[in-house]
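ok so heres the complex, two chains, lmk if somethin looks off
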Amino acid sequence: MDMVVSVIAATLGAGTPLIFAALGELVAEKSGVLNLGVEGMMLVGAIVAFITMRSTGDLWLGVAVAGVAGALMALLFAFATLTLQANQVAAGLALAIFGAGVSAFIGKGFVGVTLENRADAGLSLPIDIPLLSPLLHSLHPLVYVSWLLFAGVSWFLFRSRAGLVLRAVGESPASAHAVGYPVIRIRYLATLFGGAMAGIGGAYLSLVYAPLWLEGMVAGRGWIALALVVFATWRPARVMLGAYLFGGITIVQYFAQSAGVAFATQFMSMLPYLATIVVLVVISRDVAMIRLNAPVSLGKPFHPGV
Amino acid sequence: MQLRLEPRALQSRAMRYASPLIAAALTLVMGFILFAALGKNPPAAFYAFFIAPINSVGGLAELFLKASPLVLIALGLAVGFRSNIWNIGAEGQLTLGAIAAGWVALDPAFADSPLLLAAMIVAGILGGMAWAAIPAFLRTRFNANEILVSLMLTYVAQLLVNWLVFGPWRDPQGFNTPQSALFADGALFPILIANTRLNASVLLTLAAVVVSWVFLEKSFLGYKTRVVGLSSAAARYAGFSEKRTVWVGMLAGGAAAGLAGVGEVAGPLGQLLPTISPGYGFTAIIVAFVGRLDPVGIVFAGLLMSLLYLGGDSAQISMGLPAAAAALFQGALLFFLLGADVLVNFRVRVIRAVPLDQPRAAL
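and the predicted structre for the whole thing:
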């Protein structure tokens, strides 16, 4: 019984950073902006959250600072691509590399430092339901925040007027501009939101999941989040599904080890990366479906003209 | 007053070459501010970063030694980047090249062969190409994004070499250190300048510079890759195969990265280690862009990036600056370059607001 609860809790926990990063990226992509720098923004979020938490002991302050830092990183990207019309793919790669450098630079004195274990308990149900009560209690509050984020993003994109405008900008910036919507400003906001969520995803890794700081500790999760958005065919519910699928694959190695499976840990660690490739292949082979679901202007620059 | 961007009818050639210089200048300004903010004397920090590492023969040798893999990989990546094939997994392809070369070097059957080094070079190139062939195949056959696939394979390659040096290839005499046995002398590139680490692998890089210049500027295949990159519709109409361009772009990058991997294990490393490269495969992406995807430009960009690596180490030792400052400068340089490139395609117009109640001056 305890085993079941801890497996589910670990799966949900491992999927949570992906949810933040992928839902943020989803919103940015829905507006037509492809920001490949998620990994870099997560790394910067992870280190600033770590330093904030270590000096203040305040988890939520750390999360907030990480969100701001992620948004600032995204602002660099937005300025380069939206104002200066730089190629989004190249600028995204630049952001990923730059973020790795920035985070290593800031985190120089913190490598391998750990945080004190804090017991951030989740919800306590008034009645005792087998499985559910201990599970809900063992989840970190940020897991609940990620659920709220999912609800918020789903509502915003598909139920709100502002979300409709954002999607219109992603589908046809020229038409949205002609109707009078500020295409560039909307894309700026969507990109900043994506950066803030990536930063928070990073914060979850360094504050809750690890909890410590190591250079490059995001370990490709930013890229996996990008793959998840494709896997989800730009739908928030499928992002959740994909993130927990990957969470499950990530924790397989720990449970296999404790169950005494004699298989090199390195091969177990390869699983999330190999699974990402498999998932991409399976979803991308259906070209028509990708074309139907991908925002039409994704990755393409828009210049309002004179 | 307001600044406005106006599209240029034609790309500005002058700006194409000026923008890397603008980017370098902006990076220096950023460095100045950063050093000052950290309480370091900026001139002294600049000296430690850019002059101290190369004011000796040994320093210059290190400059070329580190520039060599960067230039080599960037040349290969440029083939793909020119046609919008985004191979960003060169780090993994380098690792596979190193593994393949190590496999040959550690095999006792080859130990005394005079062709040992040649066999390692071939194996390394094939290893890098094989690793690049996976994203190429998945892109052409299943439409899977080559950026994500090649990057995921980088993590897989790093775990693979990690497993090898912790497991089956661990040096039996290595006191349990995670590393392979040292390669025999016949498995190492000869040293070019005595008392330095500069070895003959830089000659291969020089040859690659010439070959890629000829390929890109003079060959029909090079022309075709550029057309596909500029406009895939035009290329299809002219009968150029997009699939073939994907293959050529990916394999060129893989081969170059694989060869660079051989250069590392048969050069300064002399054995397999858990980490083969300090991020050369990623830095080479910056080198390719800053060098304008042009072989000659790539050589200069590679030397600059190599200097940043050395400067990072030097500034760490002499001034206590984090070595990651180098990575920070490299990333910033690419950012500034992409931003400055706006001047290639756009012209900046200054628009002055004219108050409504004043008549416009006669023109």
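quick notes: The mean pLDDT of chain A is 91. thats all i got rn
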